[in-house]
Design goal:
The protein has 221 residues and is α/β, with parallel strands linked by helices. The protein has helices at 76-81, 117-125, 147-154, 177-183, 197-209; strands spanning 2-14, 17-23, 34-42, 45-52, 62-68, 88-92, 95-96, 104-109, 133-138, 158-162, 171-172, 190-194, 217-220. The chain is built from 5 helices and 13 strands. The chain starts with a strand and ends with a strand.
């Protein structure tokens, strides 16, 4: 089912990432961690793509999304970045983007953090954040989405790794065997991975090499 939704607000989070708030259609329902498809017309094209809902209260009057803009594609993310207040878009019913099974390690790259944001917010609110870790890979420090909020939620359990910013106070390098073997204190927990496919494939191979049971690893595309 499709719903017509009105744009309420846009907020810049990083140089190429923004938060989009839209009015929640009256009959629209969802659960934490679900995603939906956004579509809109651009000139003669009909653009559509899936996005995770990052708001956590299903009775709120708005729905929030964190969207990374890819100018080189000149596709839906660019079109969404140009929306103005009171513009309209189409959204579909929501579906599960991943299944939270219990305490573990979240590993994300870039905009792959978005499926984890509402869950981390909810775990913090319910005082159930202890025992979770977040490993977050980006190119530079300014690319870290919601850096201060995530630091507040996770404290010392928030690990940033930057591939092109060796002058930052955060770690420099990639999520490889050496980094994960030093950072992960147990292979007997859940691992939630989200990011570009090459990143997922690489991290998954490392986790398996470290002895993690494949049934404890969840890849989120």
């Amino acid at each position: 089912m499709n719903y017509l939704a009105t744009v309420l607000n846009k907020t810049c989070l990083t140089p190429n990432v923004f938060q989009l708030s839209i009015e929640r259609p009256e009959s629209f329902t969802y659960q934490i961690g679900q995603a939906l498809e956004i579509s809109l017309h651009k000139d003669t094209e009909f653009l559509k793509a899936p996005f995770t809902i990052t708001s956590i209260y299903e009775n709120d009057k708005d729905l929030q999304f964190i969207i990374k803009v890819y100018p080189e594609h000149n596709g839906i993310t660019v079109a969404l970045s140009k929306l103005k207040v009171n513009d309209t878009i189409l959204i579909t019913d929501a579906w599960d983007s991943f299944a939270y099974k219990g305490k573990g390690v979240f590993i994300a790259a870039g905009s792959g953090i978005t499926p984890f944001i509402p869950l981390l917010r909810l775990l913090k609110e319910k005082n159930k954040i202890e025992g979770h870790k977040l490993i977050y890979a980006n190119r530079t420090e300014r690319d870290i989405i919601l850096k201060y909020e995530l630091e507040t939620i996770l404290g010392n359990s928030f690990y940033n790794l930057l591939s092109r910013d060796h002058l930052s106070k955060y770690g420099f390098g990639r999520v490889d065997y050496d980094f994960l073997s030093d950072t992960i204190d147990s292979t007997h927990q859940y691992f939630y991975l989200c990011g570009p496919k090459p990143f997922l494939d690489s991290v998954n191979k490392v986790l398996l090499k470290l002895g993690v049971n494949k049934n404890l690893i969840q890849l989120i595309y």
